[in-house]
Design a protein that fits this description.
The protein is of the alpha/beta class and 282 residues long. The protein has 9 helices and 8 strands. The longest helix has 29 residues. Bound molecules: nicotinamide-adenine-dinucleotide.
Length: 282
């Protein structure tokens, strides 16, 4: 039986381990040819090497799939362009980009260095922007639509203590996803984001992960959602922010309260705002 992604060419960033690796193994089983990108860094962005990406490529090939390794950083223009070039050079086209690469440098804002802020924002937000732009330019030339699946986080959507850099980057990915979904709609390119929770090297020592196992909160729960959004099944879904936590799948939506309009449409005074705050916030 033909796989759901038969004939498709996908780039999956940061797919040398964790969630990205699960995406890659499932995409390959579903018939996609894949560029396995990974810088091979530690979870804080230190070091680099080709081993992680090579290993996943070998796994895919051993199972009869097609994949090529790429070790570029998504945080640079050359890296992002080089990644798209890898897909075109090796497989002749590009259909899908999954922006998944990421690092953590957790610190409270009072203790965060400018370098910790910049590096995290560069890998997540700038990397997603650069990859999105490079892919969209190719999708436009090809004229056959495309799929972009980004990776945001509940930290970016709701805020999280000690993650000012990461939350700002992931919140940026939320708005970039929404904006790109509007801008690329007429090209037939869908842009969605996943907000996962999964046990990986990034999260294994977090307090909130205590009591969970690879079985009930492993990254194998996230990959089918990415494959679905990347497939023809999701042709009419764009701009969605999909939460996945183990077996639970749901959507995040920005809400606006009904609000209160002042009599006669006049400006509110600060004292009136205080007085009627509960009504405004309801
Ligand atoms: N695990 C979770 O619960 C969780 C929650 C919310 C969001 N996320 C997001 O999911 C994505 C995957 O995270 P994970 O949990 O699998 O962690 P992970 O550390 O296992 O995977 C991230 C991968 O990205 C690679 N990488 C880092 N910087 C790179 C760069 N500049 N260019 C290319 N590759 C780079 C790393 O080498 C690593 O293999 C990340 O974007 C993360 O922020 C994860």
């Amino acid at each position: 039986m033909a796989g759901m992604l038969e004939g498709k060419v996908a780039i999956i960033t940061g797919s040398g381990g964790g969630i990205g690796r699960e995406h890659a193994l499932l995409f390959a089983r579903e018939g996609a040819k894949i560029v396995i990108n990974d810088l091979g860094s530690d979870r804080h962005g230190g070091g680099r090497g080709g081993e992680m990406a090579d290993k996943v490529v070998a796994e895919i090939k051993a199972a009869g799939g097609e994949a090529v390794a790429n070790y570029d950083s998504v945080a640079t223009r050359e890296g992002a362009d080089g990644l798209v070039w890898s897909a075109l050079n090796k497989f002749g086209k590009l259909d899908i980009v999954v922006n998944n690469a990421g690092i953590l440098r957790d610190k409270t804002l009072l203790n965060m260095s400018e370098q910790d802020f910049d590096l995290v924002v560069d890998v997540h937000l700038k990397g997603t922007y650069l990859m999105t732009q490079a892919a969209a330019r190719t999708f436009k030339v090809q004229g056959k639509g495309g799929r972009i699946v980004n990776t945001t986080s509940l930290s970016g959507l709701l805020g999280n203590f000690g993650q000012g850099n990461y939350a700002a980057a992931k919140g940026g990915i939320y708005s970039l996803t929404r904006t790109a979904s509007l801008e690329f709609a007429r090209m037939g390119v869908t842009v969605n984001a996943i907000a996962p929770v999964a046990l990986t090297r990034m999260t294994q020592d977090l307090q909130m992960m205590k009591g969970f196992t690879q079985e009930n909160l492993g990254p194998q729960h996230i990959a089918p959602v990415a494959a679905f959004l990347a497939s023809d099944l999701a042709v009419d879904i764009t701009g969605a922010i999909v939460g996945v936590q183990g077996g639970k799948v749901f959507l995040y939506k920005m809400t606006e309260t009904a609000g209160v309009t002042k009599e006669g449409g006049q400006a509110w005074s600060p004292a009136e705002l205080r007085e009627r705050w509960a009504e405004i916030a309801r």
